[in-house]
Design goal:
The protein is an all-alpha fold and about 220 residues long.
Length: about 220
Amino acid sequence: MSSTLIDPSLLVPAFLAAAAYTLTPGPAFLALLGIGAVQGRRAGVGFLAGHLAGDVVWASLALVAIIGAQSLGTAAFDLLGLGCGAYLLWLGWKAASVRHGDDALASLGAKRPLLRGLTFGLMNPKGYPVAVATFTSLLAGRSQDLSWERMPMLLLAAFVGFVLADIILAYVIGAGLVRRFYRRHQIWVTRASGLLFIGFGLNALWHSAHGLWGAWRRA
């Protein structure tokens, strides 16, 4: 079998990483809920359409970083995983420990949601490290299968994950129940997102530490 052929099971982590990156509440997710709560579903869809460009850019750079580390050896990939896991734990702790009054939505009332989403997606300083951390946490167990030849299919799987996650968000943000729930429980949504980040971080640390331990024992 050619090495350029990809195991379909390898596409699942890329798909899930993209979906989790989109669906896990963070700055863009909270901004989207704010726009949907104020301006409705159509404005939210515009924001998502613009933000998708940033999602693809950050996912591409994340896969370049991950595969590049893998091409240098599994140890480099595992060290990257440790750093990404620690970063996700830090983000998760910040979100899980947020207090009332700490969480402001700068995107509320944006007059041009499409442009706002594009700007937010491409210029969000957390986009790249979060993408690297999320993709690393879910691809860590398949590090030996990563290669440059397989990157296009991985990116395609990630794109499908982004689009399906956006469809889910577009469906729910305009619902009156969701808008009322978010306004009433915004701080708890943020804290729940923190727990999810912590879970991804622990997963990345576990796989990376296991890989480094195995390499050390073999040496």
